[in-house]
Structures are given as C-alpha cells and as structure tokens.
Amino acid sequence: MWIERALCQGAELCCEHAAAVFATDDEYVAYVKADVGADCAHKALLVPGEHEEQVRRAEAECPSRCINIID
C-alpha cells in the first residue's frame, strides 16, 4: 500500500476510516503513519491485518484515488 501524495486533495476520509494507519500533515496531505509496522525506506508498505478492512474502505472512498493497494 502507498499514498500518491501529489494526488491527495486533503479530504481526510482516510483518517476517518483508518486513523491508526493514516494521518495528514500541516497542508492536509495524507501519509501512512510510521508506527504501523512499516519500513519507511520503501515506498510500498504492508497493511497490518487488523487494519486491512478499514484501509480498503479508505481506498474505495478516497475522492482523489491516491491510496494504492496491491494484493
């Protein structure tokens, strides 16, 4: 999973659906929180199993389609 930050419109729906995984910066651009068990040196991050449903809902409802999930 990753967020294409250049596409983010700052709707913050990802934060509403999966607050344990997503946050926004001072400009309301979404990012994946580092403490979800990810190696921040890589662009694509693994979604912890307990958050998968919320992350998929956030992806489906993101108006800018900036959340990318690879199965």
CATH A-level architecture: 2-Layer Sandwich
Radius of gyration: 11 Å
Shape: globular
The assigned structural class equals alpha+beta
What is the number of E strands?
4
**Order of H and E elements:** EHEEHE
CATH topology: Alpha-Beta Plaits
Strand percent estimate? 5-15%
Q: Which blocks of ≥5 consecutive residues have pLDDT under 50?
A: 38-42
The number of helices is 2
Considering DSSP H and I runs of 4 or more, what fraction of the residues is helical? Answer: 10-25%
List keywords for this structure.
71 residues; alpha+beta; Alpha-Beta Plaits; two-stranded antiparallel ribbon; 4 strands; Ferredoxin
Q: Concise description?
A:
The chain is α+β, with helices and mostly antiparallel strands. Helices cover 21% and strands 14% of the residues. It has helices at 13-17, 52-61; strands at residues 2-3, 22-24, 30-32, 67-68.
Task: Provide a descriptive summary of the structure in words.
- This is Ferredoxin.
- It comes from Nocardia brasiliensis (strain ATCC 700358 / HUJEG-1).
- This protein is of the alpha+beta class and 71 residues long.
- The protein has helices at 13-17, 52-61, and strands at 2-3, 22-24, 30-32, 67-68.
- It has one domain (2-68): Alpha-Beta Plaits (2-Layer Sandwich).
- Helices cover 21% and strands 14% of the residues.
- The chain has a two-stranded antiparallel sheet with strand order 1-4. Strands 2-3 form a two-stranded antiparallel sheet.
Task: Outline the fold blueprint.
Elements: E1 2-3, H1 13-17, E2 22-24, E3 30-32, H2 52-61, E4 67-68
Antiparallel strand pairs: 1-4, 2-3
